[in-house]
Write a structure and sequence with these properties.
alpha/beta, Double Stranded RNA Binding Domain, globular, 7 helices, 232 residues
């Protein structure tokens, strides 16, 4: 009677063969060479990301904080975003609600972009439009000698605001960046020393909304460029 291999022994030999192949010198050298191309796994992941968006696509709008979310809501209420859903190869847009954004996991270092991409995945969106605003503010007193005499009732404080709205269209599945855009608006004025903080706060809110509106006004041209470059 011919000797036969028991199932356990056969499995062990099969696994040994696989292990030898996976850890062969040629495979190890190729793996090391690929790792050497990048100084960090995060860079490797970003460089190796590929587009996976399917057209017509669904795009989730992802404000990065409460302030940006309020501006997006205001623009939506005013009908400033209505034209987005009529763009070619854009099935629909949806605004990510904070109710479906997961909490930051400090142990696993889940970044803000992963949290928004996870929320977009829950909405079955193909891509996320990340939104952020940065505002530079300068202020200073002019006509300084009048400050004490006027008791703060005469305009004597100058301010200047520059708000820049940023956008990045990112693949929900892979993190591939289809493109970025930014638009800026400026506003300046003179206010009284007394109550100037409220005046500047209102001016800041207005200039930020104008920058965001300008960014969305440019989105149709931006989107057509993405479609032309990535639609198969």
């Amino acid at each position: 009677m011919k000797p036969t291999l028991t199932p356990i022994l056969a499995a062990a030999l099969l696994c040994t063969g696989c292990s030898s192949y996976i850890n062969s010198p040629a495979v190890a050298r190729a793996r090391d060479a690929k790792r050497a191309e990048f100084s960090d796994p995060l860079i490797a992941r970003a460089a190796n990301a590929k587009p996976s968006m399917r057209f017509p696509a669904t795009v989730a709008i992802g404000p990065n904080d409460h302030g940006v979310r309020e501006h997006v809501r205001a623009l939506s209420a005013l009908g400033k975003l209505d034209n987005l859903n009529s763009l070619p190869q854009l099935a629909r847009t949806t605004i990510i609600s904070p109710a479906i954004i997961g909490e930051t996991d400090h142990e696993h270092r889940i970044t803000a972009d992963l949290r928004l991409r996870e929320a977009a995945a829950k909405l079955y969106a193909d891509a996320v439009l990340f939104l952020a605003i940065e505002t530079q503010a300068t202020d200073g007193k002019i006509i300084a000698p009048l400050t004490d005499l006027s008791l703060g009732l005469l305009p004597n404080k100058h301010y200047e605001l520059i708000a820049t709205a940023f956008a990045a269209l990112v693949d929900t599945r892979t993190g591939y960046v289809y493109g970025t855009d930014e638009k800026s608006r400026a506003r300046s004025g003179i206010t009284m020393a007394w109550g100037s903080d409220d005046v500047i706060h209102r001016a800041r809110s207005k200039v930020e909304r104008e920058a965001m509106e300008k960014l969305f006004a440019d989105f149709p041209a931006f989107w057509r460029g993405v479609v032309a470059a990535h639609r198969r």
